[in-house]
Amino acid sequence: MQTFLNNEKGFVMVVALMILVILSLIGIAGLDTSMFEEQIAGNDWSAKRTFYKSDGGTELGSELLEYNFSCGPISSAKITTKIKVDTANIFHNESAPAPAASYPSDTKRDLCWPSANANSPVLADCNVGSTAEHTNLSIFGDVTYNEGAAIQMAAGYEGKGKGAAGGGAAYIHEIHSQNLGIRGNEAVVRVEWRHVVGQEDPAGCY
Question: How are beta strands 186-196 and 134-146 bridged, if at all?
Fold first, then answer.
C-alpha cells in the first residue's frame, strides 16, 4: 500500500495537460479579443469613410452649382457620364422641401454621385434601391439682396461679396449630401453656399 501511494508515474503528464488547457484558454480569449478589436476598427473605418464621402459630396455640389450658374443646364457629357443628373437646373430650386424630406434620398434628389470608385464611376450604382455605395445630393435656395460692405463688416461677414459696397444680389443655397456607404452606413452633411450674382465664370464651361 505504501508503494502505491508513493508512485508518481504520470504526474508530469497530468501537469502538462493542465498547462496546455490553461494556455489554450488564454489563446482563445486573446483570439476573441483580437477579432472584436478588428470589428471595431472596421466599423470605425467605414463610418469615417461614409462621413467624408458625404462631406465630399457637398464640395461636388458647390462646384456643380457654380457650373450651373456660369454655364447653364448641367448637360455636358463630361459630367453626365460620371454623375447622374436628375435636375439639370439646380439653381432654379428656389423652395426648400418639406422638413421630413429636407435631406436627399434615392427618390428625392437632384444629383447622384456613384462614389464607390471615383476613377471609374458606375452610374448603375445610383439606381433606386441600389446597395452599392453612392452619394445623393439635394440643392435648393433663393435669391436675396446683399447688404452694403459697411453693414457686412459690422455683422462680421468675411465671405465672398463683401467688397460690393453698394450691396447687390446673391443666391443663398443649401447643399445636402447623403452618402449611403458600405456596411449599411449613412451620413448626411448640410452646408450653405453663397453665390454672388455677377461672379459667374463662363470660361470654366465645357
Answer: unpaired
Residues with Cβ within 8 Å of residue 29, at least 6 apart in sequence: none
* 3-state secondary structure (DSSP) of residue 169: strand
The answer to whether 48 touches 176, Cβ cutoff 8 Å, is no
Based on the structure, what is the number of domains in the chain? Answer: 1
Q: Which distant-in-sequence residues (6+ apart) come within 8 Å of 9 by Cβ?
A: none
Q: Give the residue from 178, 180, 182, 179 showing the smallest Cα distance to 44.
A: 182
Query: What is the rounded CA–CA span in Å between residue 140 and residue 39?
Result: 39
pLDDT of residue 83: 95
Q: What is the mean pLDDT of each successive set of 10 residues along the chain, which is 206 residues long?
A: 57 77 78 71 86 94 92 92 92 65 84 90 92 93 66 50 58 91 88 85 84
pTM assigned to the model: 0.72
Give the chain's radius of gyration (CA, Å).
30
Does an H or E element contain 11, and which? helix 11-71
Residue 97, domain extent: 2-204
Residue 98 confidence (pLDDT): 59
